[in-house]
Design brief:
This protein is 60% helix and 4% strand. With 297 residues, it is mainly α. It has a 3-stranded antiparallel β-sheet. The protein has a two-stranded antiparallel ribbon with strand order 3-4. The longest helix has 26 residues, at 35-60. The chain is globular, with a radius of gyration of 23 Å. The relative contact order is 0.08.
Length: 297
């Protein structure tokens, strides 16, 4: 009755409902784990965390716990007198990931990189150390309605073991998970799907031609952005160009690009503007969409 009332009956029965059985089968089947490799990875992470924490203490001149928000807030805002970033929801000072990125960009303090490294490794260590079931498999619970945008989500299995299995780093995943006998793992992804759609909607023929050329589009765009031949583009420059392409799809500001790439705002502004100068149709399309929204919402 409610599905009919909200006009979502067809969407539910054509898209959501058919996913229930296959996802239940997948989550209940589970995945075998290489136990020795898991233990080795956990020990390696613990050693790296210990070493990095020692580096933090040496640079800070005292013991500073990178996992303690209270200590970090006191250190950066009270002792170092850094600009105080506030959580928009709570209105209180914060040293969350976004605040640390902004502090790093503003003050270029090497301690911040080390703190983020410890946080990332500690999170990964917790993921690897999650409880397995008696058959030495790891399981997850898939949430088909997922996030606000409709993406699939996952979390601890319904019976308390396992974890979210969608954010395991690729290197670790390849070493840790074992396919069932007679099976292989396959990675499937669309090829620059969002950028292709944007190029088509924006009528950017040059960008569409680049997609159809079969070349490495991120290296080619890096060549345009940095003004040098594709063969001279570094791995870092290619990654930056890739970020700029994705960011420009959503009309992201140069300040956000600077934050994501960890570079200065003037450089981020130059890189983003250079890209848009080569593909002006993207911003024209953005303006058309914004004007349409203002006119009739």
């Amino acid at each position: 009755k409610e599905l009919k009332e909200f006009g979502t009956k067809d969407f539910y029965f054509n898209f959501i409902h058919p996913l229930i059985i296959p996802y239940m089968e997948t989550q209940n089947r589970g995945i075998h784990i290489d136990l020795s490799r898991r233990e080795e990875a956990i020990q390696t992470l613990e050693q790296e965390i210990k070493k990095t924490r020692e580096e933090i203490n040496n640079l800070a001149g005292k013991e500073l716990n990178p996992l303690s928000p209270k200590q970090l807030i006191s250190y950066f805002y009270d002792e170092l007198k850094y600009y105080k970033y506030v959580d928009r929801k709570t209105g209180k000072p914060t040293c969350n990931e976004d605040a640390l990125n902004r502090l790093k960009r503003k003050y270029n303090n090497p301690i911040i990189d080390l703190i983020q490294s410890v946080r990332d490794k500690n999170k990964l260590r917790g993921t690897l150390a999650t409880d397995l079931d008696c058959d030495n498999k790891i399981r997850t619970s898939y949430i088909i309605f997922g996030t606000e945008t409709g993406r699939l989500a996952s979390r601890t299995h319904a019976y308390g073991s396992g974890t979210n299995l969608q954010n395991i780093p690729k290197g670790i995943a390849k070493e840790l998970f074992i396919p069932a006998p007679g099976n292989i793992f396959v990675g499937v992804d669309l090829s620059q799907a969002e950028a292709r759609v944007v190029a088509a909607l924006a009528g950017e023929t040059h960008l569409l031609e680049l997609f159809d050329s079969g070349k490495d589009i991120h290296k080619e765009n890096a060549s345009l952005i940095y003004g040098k031949p594709p063969e001279e583009i570094t791995k870092e420059e290619r990654q930056q160009a890739k970020t700029i392409v994705h960011a420009s799809n959503y009309d992201v500001s140069y300040r956000t690009v600077a934050l994501v790439l960890g570079i200065g705002e003037p450089k981020a502004h130059t890189l983003l503007e250079t890209y848009h100068n080569h593909y002006p149709g993207i911003r024209r399309w953005h303006r058309d969409v914004q004007n349409e929204l203002r006119r009739n919402r």
